Amino acid sequence: VSAGIFKPQNSVAQNATVRCFVYEQETGEAALYTHVFLQGTKISVTTDVNGYFSITCPAGNYVLTATFLGCDTLRQNLALKAGEIVTKKLYLKKAAKLLGEV
User: Fold this and answer.
1) Which listed site, 60, 91, 92, 93, has its alpha carbon 20 to 30 Å from 69?
2) Beta-strand (E) ranges in the chain?
């Protein structure tokens, strides 16, 4: 058996996966097409029509960031271990509107 057969499995084992559904907190509706990324990396995705996304990345510490028009930016610390699959539900808060004087 060639050692090369095991190499891809070893590299996959060094990764972790984050699977999330993103919702608008106020309505409970799925946050469609929300931009999600790991701060300080080039890893980014967009949620689908169900507010779902999945990111596979090297194990490590990250700040998961989600941005959606009309909502506050959500940031969540992640400590991912090799081979780990993390499943979360994230809730975006509606942005506070600042009104000027009339």
Assistant:
1) 60
2) 15-24, 35-38, 44-46, 52-58, 60-67, 74-80, 85-92
CA 51 from chain centre, in angstroms, equals 11
Residues constituting the chain: 102
CA atoms within 13 A on the CB side of 97: 5
Strands 85-92 and 15-24: parallel
Those residues of the chain that have pLDDT short of 50 are 1-2, 5-10
Q: Which residue has the tokens 């610390």?
A: 77
Q: Which of 4, 65, 58, 11 is nearest to 38 (CA)?
A: 65
Closest CA to 64 of 33, 90, 38, 42: 38
